[in-house]
Amino acid sequence: YPTWKRTLARRARESQMKRFCRAQAIQRRLEEIEVTFRELEQQGIKLEKLLRDESESPADQQTQWTNQLLYLVQKKNNLMTEESDLMIAVQELKLEEQQCQLDEKLRSYMNKEDTLKTAEDEKAEQEILKQLVEVVNKRNVLIQLQEEKRLSEL
After folding, report:
1. Do the beta carbons of residue 134 and residue 149 sit within 8 Å?
2. pLDDT for position 112
3. CA angle (20, 21, 27) in 5-degree steps
4. What does the pLDDT read at residue 1?
5. CB neighbour list of residue 125: distance below 8 Å, 6 or more residues apart
6. According to the model, what pLDDT value does residue 9 have?
7. pLDDT computed for residue 41 by the predictor
8. Among 109, 113, 111, which residue's Cα sits nearest to residue 126?
9. pTM surpassing 0.90?
10. Residue 52: how many CB atoms within 10 A of its CB?
């Protein structure tokens, strides 16, 4: 078993573990965002009730409640943006995993001697290459989407 094959296998395992850890971190953050959404929703409901029910309260108090409500809306919008970014990251991780699997399959076909390849092997190799190009194009679209989003935020 040549050294380069062991190195490739080790790097593949390492990158797979990194993707797994990133996926777990993203999942935890999405759960945290969900909890925060619910908390913000409850706070917003309380503030809206105060604004509706306490119409005779001083103008300063109503202004303060309105400002708090606007702050909650802003915070919720920021969380929604973060959630959207995380969902894009999830898609990117899936495509990255798919690309690694296709790379591995393609490498196994390409390492086979040309004289030993059957017509089915050649066809399978071409199909995998086609799928790999599609995955790379999808990843490129996601990266472009992220870049456009980043530029629009600036």
Report:
1. no
2. 84
3. 90
4. 62
5. 106, 109, 110, 117
6. 85
7. 96
8. 109
9. no
10. 8
**Residues 6+ away with beta carbon under 8 Å from 61:** 54
> How many other CB atoms are there within 10 angstroms of residue 12's CB atom?
15
Token readout for 143 is 């990266």
Q: Is 36 exposed, middle or buried (0-12, 13-18, 19+ CB in 10 A)?
A: middle
Tokens of 74: 């802003």
Structure tokens at 119: 């017509």
Q: How far apart are CA 66 and CA 140, in angstroms?
A: 43
3-state secondary structure of 25: helix
Question: In the prediction, which pLDDT does 149 show?
Answer: 87
CB 79 within 8 A of CB 37: yes
Residue type, 128: I
CA nearest to 79, candidates 51, 23, 46, 41: 41
Helix H segments across 54-118? 59-110
For the chain, what percentages of helix, strand and coil (3-state, to nearest 5) are there? Answer: 90, 0, 10
Q: For the chain, list residues with pLDDT below 50.
A: none
